[in-house]
Amino acid sequence: MAEQLQGKELSYNNLVDLEAARRLIGEFNPATPACAILKHTNPCGVALGQTLGEAYDRAFGADSTSAFGGIVAFNQPIDAETAHKLTQTFLECIVAPACTAPAQDILAKKGNVRLLILPDLLGGPHHSLKAIAGGFLVQESDNFPENPQAWQVVTEKKPVAADLKELLFAWQVVKHVKSNAIVVSRDAVTCGIGAGQMNRVGAVKIALEQAGNQAQGSVLASDAFFPFDDSVRAAAAAGIRAIIQPGGSLRDADSITAANELGLIMVFTGVRHFLH
Fold it and tell me: What is the pLDDT of residue 171?
C-alpha cells in the first residue's frame, strides 16, 4: 500500500498511471539508480544512472516535451539533489520506495505534486482484469523476470557483453509500452519510443524519428515479432546495431537474412509481451 505524503487527491487516471509506473520501475535492480517518466501509461523516458539525480536527468532529457505533467517513478529513495531537480518542472505524481526528510522539505514547495511512498515496488497483482460486455477477462500478469540465458542469437554477427546489457535494458522497457511497441536505446537511456501503433512499421518509424542521430549505434527492441523484413531494413538505415525481438513469425528467415546482409545483431527472446 502506498502512502501519499503530499499533493492533491489522486484521480482515476493518476492511479492507472502510477500502477504502470510501478510495474516498469520494478524491472530494475534497486542497486542501480533508475528513473521512468510516463504519460498515459506509456513511458516517455527511462534511464539508469550513477546517481538517482543523473537517472532523472537522463530520463527527462529523453523526451522533455512529453515529460511535462508526467508521472515519475524511482527505484531508490529520493534524495535532496533529486528533489531539487523535480521542482524545476510541472509533474503530476512522483513515486519512490522512500524519500529523505530534506527531500520532503524541498518537494513541499511544490504542494500540488502528488508524492507517494511505495516501499514494495514488486508487490503488484498476480492477475489483470478487464471488463467486457457480459463479463470480464482474467489474465496472469506479465510479471516474470527476464531470462537472457534463454535468448537465441540468430545472426552471424554475435553480441558482446555490452550489447546484451543494452538489449536487456531495451527489452525491459518495451515490455511496458502499449503494442505495437518499439524502443530504441543507447547507454541505458531511451532515445525513441513508438507506442500503440496500428502497424509495427509505423511504431518503428516513430521511434527512429524521435531518436534521430542518436539511433546511430543504438539498439532496437520490438515487443512482438517482425512479420516482414521492412522494419529490419529501416532500423539498419537509421544506424541501429542490434535488434531484440521475440521471433516466431512465419517469415523469421527473411528478417534474419536481412540482418545478416546489413551486418546487424539479432536476438530472439522466445517471449512476446504485446501489452494491451
Answer: 97
